[in-house]
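To close the chapter, one final illustration. This time we ask the reader to focus less on the individual chains and more on the assembly as a whole: which components sit near each other, and how the overall shape emerges from the parts.
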Amino acid sequence: MNFEAIIGLEIHVQMKTKSKMFSASPNSFSRMPNTEVTGFDMSFPGTMPRPNKQAIINAIRIANALHMTIDPLVRFDRKNYFYPDLPKGFQITQEFHPIGRNGYLDILDKDGATKRIHIERIHLEEDTCKQIHFSDYTLLDYNRAGIPLVEIVSQPEIHSGTEAMHYVEAIRNIAVYSLTSDGKMEEGSLRVDVNVSLRPYGSTIFGTKVEIKNINSLKHIEQAIDYEIQRQRACLLSGGRVAQDTRRFDESSGRTVSMRVKIPAVDYKCFPEPNIVPIRLSKEFIQEAIDSCPELYEAKKTRYIEAGLPSIDADIILSNLDMSLYFDEALKKCKSAKTLGNFMIVEVNAYLNRKGIGIKDYPLDPIALAEIANYQEEGYTHKQCVEILSYCLENACTPPADAKRALHIEMHDSDENAVLELVTQVLNDNPQSVADFKSGKDRAIGFLIGQVMKKAKGKFNPAVVAKIMNTEIQKR
Amino acid sequence: MDYLDMGIAEIHSALVKKEVTPLELARLALQKAKENKENAFEYICEAEALEFAATLVEPEENNLLWGIPYACKDNFSTKGIPTTASSNILEGYVPLFDATVVKKLAEKKAVLIGKTTLDELAMGGTGTTGHKGTTFNPYDPDHKHLIGGSSCGSAVAVAAGIVPFAIGSDTGDSVRKPASYGGLVGMKATWGRISRYGLFCFAPSLDHVAYFTRSVEDSATLLNALAGRDEMDSTSSFQPMDNYASGLGNELKGKRIAIINGILDTIRNKKLISAFQKSVDQLILAGACIDYVDFPTELLHAIYPTYIVISCAEATSSNANLDGIKFGPYRGGATYQEVMSNARTKGFSELIKRRFVIGSFALMSENREELFERAQKARARIVQVTNQILADHDAIYLPASPSTAPVVGGSSDKLSDERLIADNYLQIGNFAGLPSITLPLTMLDGYPIGVNLTGKAFDEKNLFGIAKSVERITGLEGLDVNVRKEALL
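The assembled structure is written out below.
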């Protein structure tokens, strides 16, 4: 029997707003526990929620990027349950009226074809506090309590681990490039819960749903889902029944492991939050939130490719938000996206890796890098430009023009007639080498090029010399 | 009779003339508080009050509240001052911040002399369910009569002349009902007019900051001090403030006042009806236009169940923060469930638990539509009818309670129309968030009883004007146990 996997994803994106969802407490991801807490975050009696405007703006931007219908009346509800990480005994969320409904996202399926995944809803809510468990006690860190979250719920339209991975990657790109979140799965600022069930092809009835929680990388999403599909298929084929449970992904074994059997759904007894009156968003407010949204991943990628950057290079630069922001600044002054991209991907990255720093700490400003890339466009060799770059970095960010002067770097002559003249002369002067080349000794051409460069006192562009030498030697 | 039995303006005048100092007033209020036998106080802020009062030396002529002692219900957060909401679950809780109203009064240099008793967590109307036991009516030295609740201690503090005003909260009628039993002016403004920041949430959609005074003038003075937008309470209104005392001299001529037949008709006390009718006759003589209006009976019957469902549902959620983990007594347990269960089992009285169970039951998915959503619909209809009446009228006028102070341990027919309707209709003011003021009507057999005026949203100035006219008719301005008066009616 052949089975179809039905996969739905719930993604929680933690926002990096200045303050929390409903309190003025700073939200700067402090490592020191319980240092970013107000009375509201600990639910002291008499404290009241104050909705965060920037969080609403961020949610509008994400909703727009996902082609959703935006509800101009922002309403919040209480979701009631008792748990130690829930200070108020309820979570303020948007159960009844999510800010965004009925959207979609186009992704690539495992065959590389475009596939549309529909998105049911996105809504705003607050994070819980963090529990740190020890053998006989548990500590609570309220820094996380109240951090704004946007939850994105897909329709169960995903059918493989690869699709799920592409979907999450696209959502993460939107969250990161809208400056909503740093999107770090490994740190929990983007959390993915996956629901997987199997059913025979053609069936319209859903199978038993298994939840996989807290997967901490894109690759693991793919692995966890593919494993889970195999596991459920094997179970069904051997006549077993899939247990409704909550599982986690075990990285070392590449398997999903049961955490707990799912208890019947909790009745959250939701009702409208009486301490927040519905907020009416004007058309202008919504439009302004959308118009002022920073350029998103897909738009940047299109722009980079139109500017001449190879697609694969665009992906590399866009894999890091700060890298792309640096690239954007440099691109404004640079004549070639491709050359600039090459410098970023090779030279800049090598430097960053060597120093163990991020692009934000790269000493050279983007304009200077653009200037150096422009030298290459003007005719200096890549090697010469790299020398200038190194000199700048080693000498307290000397302006590239000064570096060039200090290094006595001069532009190679690329006048093809002048090159041809010397090439002809060298070929005439070295018949033995020409003969060697003809008899299959490829190395002979290197000697001939060297002779030309020597006669030209290094002023010719070696690439041009090589090209002409190759053409001319064939004629002999 | 001493300074503390006087009105705020009179005390202010004495302070400005330096006939008395804030420190002397605070000492007097503290002494009266300590001598009080009615169980009005949770905590008397002796050291804090004396220290603050001693700093008040140069009178502020334009600040009526300068140096005036007051009391505050113990469900308002007061920085550094124990606050229990009269519940064991908050025993030993010392808040880290001041409620906005407490902060505003401190800025006005009013002197907080004590935190007053209430029905546990403000849930109740009798003043008998706080962890310190029953609070009594000061009109009865034998302690056979109740003052009513839930703002029982604040009502006593003003009725017994301990302070000229006291802060309370009103979710159903928790200020306006005890005001009736204590011969006081009890006022709640439009929902959103006074910041609730720092008021312990009971049922936020119905909760109001409210307060007791002994005159309509003092009530207007207080609203001038307490009203206004507050960033800390996002439900507080941006509506500009009025000078609420500026309409006190208004004539009644041209004012349209509605009396709801279906409520008045359920009252069986003939003396009360007679006194009420006399006041109506006087209002007509003073130029008011009185209309007797109808209100659908099924909606009047729906008031109490609607209130119970909504208030209990919101209360069970709003008090879910009281789990013994963050503040209040920690009673141990092997698991988090046990820790919470122990704290809540020992921390709440049976009555509170019952309300939480009712609220939880109403919200359960299988009951939600039948109970919670139906209550919301009933509320919306009641509000709609009320606002229709107020579209043509300046105020609704009715007795504030069907009887004088109830007897301790007394029972009443809980399903009688009088009990269901006349005893609960003030909740309409909470459903609709309308300004509503109770003031004394008359004395019946030695006990005061009040009338209530409920007006249009944000029309407090007009409402005070009409209330002042009623007060002129009754002549009961400044009533307290030390200044006994008989109504002019």
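Residues 218-237 of chain A form the longest helix (20 residues). Chain A has a mean pLDDT of 93. With these observations in hand, you are ready for the problems at the end of the chapter.
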